[in-house]
Amino acid sequence: MSKFGRQRAAFSDWLSGVADLAEFTKGSTVSLAVTGLSRAGKTVFITSLVHNLLSALHQPYRMPLLKVVGEGRLIAARRAGVQSDSLPRFPYQQNIERMASTPADWPARTTNISEIEINIRFVPAGALGYFLSKISSGIATLKLKIVDYPGEWLLDLPLLTQSYAKWSRATLQLWRRGVRAEIGRNFFAYLSNYRHDARATEDDAKRAHELYCELLLTARDQHGLSFLQPGRFLEPESFRNRPSLWFAPLDIPDDMERPGDNTLAALMEQRFEAYKTEVITPFYEQHFRNYSRQIVLVDILGALLAGREALDDTRIAIEAVLESFRYGRGGLLMRLLRGARIEKVLLAATKADHVPEVQRDHLAALLRNMAALPALDVASSQAAIDVAAIASVVSTNEDTQEIDGHRVQVVVGRPVGSETKAKFFVGNVPIRPPRPEAWGKPFLNIPVFEPPVIDVSPIDGIAHINLDLAIEYLIGDQLR
User: Fold this and answer.
1) Domain boundaries, the chain
2) Strand order in the sheet with 384-389
3) Which among 15, 183, 359, 405 would be 20 to 30 A from 224, CA to CA?
């Protein structure tokens, strides 16, 4: 390239940089989606994150691994006002007041999509900060939109490539094994009296749908299962006034792909297709495509506590969730997202405070192992992915105790409903899913602990484990 050509290219780069800097001063926006499987702690995560960001200027020691805080470049973090076109507002204030009440209590889990926006004003790092100070006040703004949505919604993506008959056969085959067969006893009794080729009636379809939703809720709430489809059926109240979406799987013969006209199966198929069109597809096209950074929370400890089938089910659910981060060229997901891509994904094993520090690496290793193959697929599609163990709120302390002549690490906390604290030896967290013969006794002894004492004012912040590290990974590049 000639000298003139090099000068022209340098001038073009300079103009581009000035434009970027000007845009930087006006404020950029990043959407961070927080999702997770049941009881993983999404609501607590977002509440703690918001509270600690608002408190970071007063107590920077709470978030030192978030570099904009640790390097002293944070100017202010404030909640934004409600926008008229925004999603329902995440109930941060109610949650923090509930956690700070006497007696303290955990916030109620959220069941629908919501968001909260934090405006972060900061001094950019390095040369960018220097140049910005020459053309403006030297302060940049990041509008952080934190979006909360149920992870169960991501379990529905595979339905888009399945027919009703194929989905019914696969679903009922799964429900006839292990603990699921016991859970589904009432539902299967109903199916035995209502064949797929029975005459279609609204009452029969409604009863099948109600029994199937009860089955899903029992599996989640009483047995710790996670791979439950359709995901929206775990919130049946949201469909109370939409009978056109009431359906359930039926026994469909292997050689039948399309049900006969005017049959119960034909009615179910019509509603299954409506669910895909009216519920699944709009979520990906209108919402999911806007979330460039996502964190997926997983309660690995709870799955271990629930037993072998619950842990296996969690592994299957993780793989299904990660389907939403695979971008095969020309594939269904790319068509739904219209070219948008998730840039970063963090899989987080929650409740790391429930095990001693020496066990936390095991917690992350177990999640990494369970997600290894699907995670490789995500990585190959240019979405950066990582795994971490976190605790949004630290509700325990560490201590030691002598058991059978050996000094072991224990956690100390106040179980919900108890008046005193107690020591708990939680056992050893395996680094990979245990072999079948290893399930003879429970791996963990973990109660639900009460929240610690929290100041409702955003001054002192909330003790956590790796919350700042997680956010640095997800959005730190936007705060340089």
Assistant:
1) 25-149, 154-273, 288-479
2) 74-79, 114-122, 140-148, 28-36, 293-298, 344-349, 384-389
3) 359
